[in-house]
Amino acid sequence: MKVLKFGGTSVGSAENIKTLLSIVAKEKLQSNPVVVLSAMSGVTNLLTDMAERAERGEDYDASLKEIEAKHFAVIRSLLPAAAQNPVFTRLKIFFNELEDLLQAVTNLRELSLQTKDQILSYGERCSSFMIAHIASQQFVEALYVNGSELIKTDSNFGQAKVDTDLTEMLINDFYKANKSTVLFVTGFIASNAAGRVTTLGRGGSDYTAAVWGAALNAEEIEIWTDVNGMMTADPRIVKKAFSLPELSYTEAMELSYFGAKVIYPPTMIPAFMKKIPIVIKNTFEPDFSGTYIKSDVKASSLPIKGISSIDHISIINLTGSGMVGKAGFSGRLFSLLSREQINVVLITQSSSEHSITFAVKPTDAGQAISLIKKEFELELDANKLALPEVENNLAVLAIVGENMKRTPGMSGRLFNALGRNGINVRAIAQGSSEYNISVIINAADLSKAVNAVHDAFFTDLKRTLNIFCLGTGNIGKTLFNQLKEQMPFLAANNDLQVKVAGISNTRKMIFNPEGLSLEDWETNLVMNGEQADLASFVERMKALNLPNCVFVDNTAAESPIEFYQGIFESSISVVTCNKKGNSADFAQYKSFKDTARKFGVDFYYETNVGAGLPIIRTLRELMMSGDKVARIEAILSGTISYIFNNFKGDAGFYETVKEAQELGYTEPDPRDDLNGKDFMRKMLILARDAGYPLEAVDVKIDNILPEACLNATSVEDFYAELQKNSAYFEELKTKAANDKKVLRYIGKLEDGNVEISLQMVDDSHPFYMLSGSDNIISFTTDRYKSRPLVVKGPGAGAEVTAAGVFADIINVGA
Ligand SMILES: NC(=O)C1=CN([C@@H]2O[C@H](COP(=O)(O)OP(=O)(O)OC[C@H]3O[C@@H](n4cnc5c(N)ncnc54)[C@H](O)[C@@H]3O)[C@@H](O)[C@H]2O)C=CC1
Ligand SMILES: N[C@@H](CC=O)C(=O)O
Ligand code: NA
Questions:
Q1: Annotated catalytic residue: which of 28, 116, 281, 682?
Q2: What span, in angstroms and rounded, lies between the C-alpha atoms of 262 and 266?
Q3: Is 590 known to be catalytic?
Q4: How far is the CA of 599 from the centre of ligand 3 (A)?
Q5: Domains of the chain (ranges plus CATH)?
Q6: Which of 68, 92, 500, 702 could join 757 via S-S bond, C-beta 3.0 to 4.6 A?
Q7: What is the ipTM for the molecules in this complex?
Q8: pTM check: above 0.90
Q9: If DSSP codes are grouped into helix, strand and coil, which group holds residue 577?
């Protein structure tokens, strides 16, 4: 036979009670189960609140009515009119008794734990009586049992301890006498030797089920709740959390101790003692197999079973020489706290024994401090102990699993995930069983931390990158198209998911931490976006505090640059095709690099030079492996390359520039290409990456434009001047053609000097053969001395640039 326990939600409405009864009916086909029931959802909270109100002399009528209405609605809906009366009558008696109790509390303005237990007991008594009666319509064998009479405890009201031997005997006797019935037993409540009602602690109905299961040597204890068993993490925090098919008792205990509220931890003990499996099932998905908690779990390939967390915790630090070598110190400290029922969640002690840190519920911190001050008055007076310090707004994250014991590198993986996401660890504790490693972090970082750690351990699942994109122009738009098309490929081949959590252009900005749809981002941004504001875009990105976060700058603007530093300092990586950042002051360039390194995040800007061509990456790898750059020669303006490759025969200069712009090769302002500024930025970035601390003024640039074009004050003006000066360009073209040469705008870095010059080259020159927007770069280095390393290909255009940004994004954290 089995013991089936149904929680608050499962008994919370007429609809759910019907489902519950169909589960019981199905089980009954095998053998009569014992059914343990909680109070209807919300009722225990209402009862607690009413009791406290009564103690303060406040009115509690509304809550009483609410409880009545909740039950009566179920009775009316699930019982035929003729069968309702006995239940109404009995429940009314319960409510009258409850009211009398509350009145007494009001009169005395005193709420003892004993009275509180008595008040709370009505939640389970009402629900169980009502449900047993409803069940009796379906099967005559249904019997209501006030379980408080069968579970015997000490007099520790609120959290009573069960007298196992006596209880087992009483349960067995009762069960034998009622073998042909289906028992509907009140969970949570018990009684002491004097027959006073006690309770088994919050979540105690699970415990009741375990006590019955153990007493009757049940085949299984089923805990029916509203989730699919125990999961790898709280599914409200981690969307990717999944149900665990099997857990050992210890693992289940550790997971539930640190927050997984699926099962009340002490439940495991009676079941563990008798090796009775506990199964956690979902009332609303009864066919789902749920989680088995048992002793003979199959070996698992998962390095950990799950991550649990407590979102509010305070820590208390005790330091002082008085603790060194004093064997009794921690004994005194922790027995003091335990005596006063202060639950210590976690303890760490420095190896010098000079300090002890322990975590408690924030509501217990104040009391803990005053107790310590009293207990250690002498040590404090003698300065052997410093005044205890409290830190608030903290959280605990714990990874749990028996495999940790056998697998090296688990803590490395944990701390790496936390470190990369800028999560400061305040204290660490590893259970001596090695079944858990717990860390204390800021409460504000908890969601980010749990997600990052989940990603780090459950690597079979997709790694998620959360990106915030600035700029929806030529490159931004193309990137979104590529991302949309490649999502399935990424998921299948790289186990990667890229979520666009925020988008902004100069007009509008929009956010969705779950990821914006890339099908309709454009209309969504226009229709639902808010007024754009760069500073608040960055602030919101930081505040969302998502794990594996990347800021993607697809603008040509200067304004985003000032935010990079703060973004790195928030442990957010930056991917940018915007060259303005890396080509401003050297000090700033250096600071970006140093800060990204310091905060363990990435700074990728491959597209700053040669669009998607692997130029920055190639140089970085050369430098990292100790090579030295002697010379760089390069054509790095895709626009000018296109112009010189196409400004031939009858083609006009002005028309060719226009074409380059239409093809998406130029900067948003094409003057930046033709005046050499864009090329200068690229040479400067390369020089810096090659180890030269240069500034923009150090780059010598040949002008390819006549003065009037350079001085144009607007883009229209500029194009007009190009047309006016066509003779100048024609002359250049003719001269080159006559000499059988081509025009090339070539940058050179040698001995730390950088120059960009207009040259006419013949077919013996390696840069002669180019077409389209081709870029070419040759690196002469210590290793590539006699023949340089050459990279060549299209160096401008939306597709190749967006592809480079895309590659940078997926390399973040890889
Ligand atoms: N076209 C190409 O072949 C290559 C371009 N790039 C770089 O790509 C970047 C983008 O170029 P395009 O897409 O052609 O420019 P674009 O002018 O088409 O788009 C720029 C976008 O940035 C947005 N924007 C500008 N300032 C902003 C601000 N303060 N806040 C929010 N959004 C802002 C604009 O609203 C627009 O959506 C430039 O930095 C360019 O140097 C880099 C390599 C190659
Ligand atoms: N406008 C640029 C684009 C790449 O950075 C160019 O023409 O090279
Ligand atoms: Na590149």
A1: 682
A2: 12
A3: no
A4: 25
A5: 2-41+123-226 (3.40.1160.10), 306-458 (3.30.2130.10), 463-602 (3.40.50.720), 615-796 (3.30.360.10)
A6: 702
A7: 0.98
A8: no
A9: coil
